[in-house]
């Protein structure tokens, strides 16, 4: 008769049979899913016939499979797409309570891996062939809609994985969809509300003199090429420093930029470079964009216009754009920004974890 080892015994005292029996008693399920976005940052979700909530592509890890193999197999079976998956975004410990599983399932807990399926272009999206009889539809949705469309645990996991992708610090370790070591993006709830959507054409030339300036925003560079970005404290929505011209600015957009960045972010900048403007067919105004070197940052202030204190973060220009929904014109603005960066003598930033800036002076 084989006895099960007690908890205070050490593995070295077990027979192979006893050790295997003890581990089998603690066995959990394993699953894998894939996070895919389009060029606008919308997330691919599946509508399936057997659930009333949306899912990321994925499923159970079969016997003898690795999680990466399972994720690739599920993509082939569900979407008709063959691709290797070699980058993880999150590993989630899903508890019995967190999964809210039906008692009949005898759910023992699950370790679920979320892999990065990348950003798909129009050609890749057109090649999707949903599995008949299982996948009723595939759609790309704004990240903020995931809690509305998915079960609570799946939505938490997908948003945590998406933030981990933007943050670029490696896979996030989750428990029931929430990071055990939250980043500033997690704490701020980034992507929990709809991203600002401005698909306005970008022009590198001067704004028409006949149009009043409605907005002046600045891309403010740190010496390592990252940008100062502001997050709303209650929603996590992102914005660039800047704002609306006021009478005290005497019609000078540079004065508007300096005043707004000082009021919103306690930031001082060097000589700004004009990089272009946005136009809207529905409005008779222009929105100006500048680039400048960040020279000093004071303690986070209360913005007199809103009465709130923004959360300040540093991110690369590319990471910053993932916090907005600016459409195809964002490509042109990014190109103009990098040209200005070169003129300012600032290096291109290496993708790195998003961080909160230290107070002090920035020396170029």
From TrEMBL:
Keywords assigned by UniProt, alphabetized: Hydrolase
Q: What is this protein called?
A: Nudix hydrolase domain-containing protein
Q: Which cofactor does it need?
A: Mg(2+)
- Report the SUPFAM superfamilies cross-referenced here: Nudix
Keyword Hydrolase on this protein? yes
List the InterPro entries hit by this protein, alphabetically. Answer: NUDIX_hydrolase-like_dom_sf, NUDIX_hydrolase_CS, NUDIX_hydrolase_dom
Domain of life of the organism encoding this protein: Bacteria
Q: What are the Nudix hydrolase domain coordinates in residue numbering? A: 27-163
């Amino acid at each position: 008769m084989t006895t099960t080892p007690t908890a205070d015994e050490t593995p070295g005292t077990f027979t192979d049979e006893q050790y295997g029996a003890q581990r089998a008693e603690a066995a959990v399920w394993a699953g894998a899913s894939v996070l895919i976005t389009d060029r606008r940052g919308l997330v691919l979700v599946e509508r399936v016939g057997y659930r009333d909530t949306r899912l990321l592509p994925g499923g159970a890890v079969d016997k003898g499979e690795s999680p990466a193999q399972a994720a690739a197999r599920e993509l082939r079976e569900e979407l008709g797409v063959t691709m290797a998956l070699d980058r993880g975004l999150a590993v989630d410990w899903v508890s019995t309570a967190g999964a809210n599983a039906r008692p009949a399932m005898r759910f023992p807990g699950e370790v679920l891996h979320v892999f990065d399926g990348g950003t798909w272009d129009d050609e890749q999206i057109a090649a999707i062939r949903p599995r008949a009889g299982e996948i009723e539809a595939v759609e790309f949705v704004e990240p903020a809609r995931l809690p509305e469309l998915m079960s609570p645990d799946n939505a938490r996991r997908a948003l945590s994985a998406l933030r981990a992708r933007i943050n670029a610090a490696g896979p996030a370790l989750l428990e029931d969809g929430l990071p055990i070591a939250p980043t500033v993006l997690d704490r701020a709830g980034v992507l929990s509300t709809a991203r600002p959507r401005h698909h306005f054409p970008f022009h590198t030339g001067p704004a028409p003199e006949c149009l009043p300036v409605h907005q002046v925003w600045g891309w403010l560079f740190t010496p390592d090429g990252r940008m100062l970005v502001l997050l709303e404290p209650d929603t996590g929505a992102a914005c660039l420093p800047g704002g609306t011209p006021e009478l005290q600015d005497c019609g000078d957009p540079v004065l508007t930029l300096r005043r707004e960045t000082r009021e919103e972010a306690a930031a001082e900048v060097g000589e700004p470079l004009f990089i272009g403007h946005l136009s809207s067919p529905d409005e008779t105004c222009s929105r100006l964009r500048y680039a400048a070197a960040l020279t000093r940052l004071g303690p986070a202030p209360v913005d007199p216009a809103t009465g709130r204190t923004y959360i300040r973060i540093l991110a690369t220009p590319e990471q910053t754009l993932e916090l907005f929904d600016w459409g195809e014109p964002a490509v042109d603005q990014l190109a103009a920004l990098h040209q200005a960066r070169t003129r300012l003598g600032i290096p291109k930033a290496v993708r790195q974890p998003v961080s909160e800036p230290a107070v002090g002076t920035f020396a170029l």
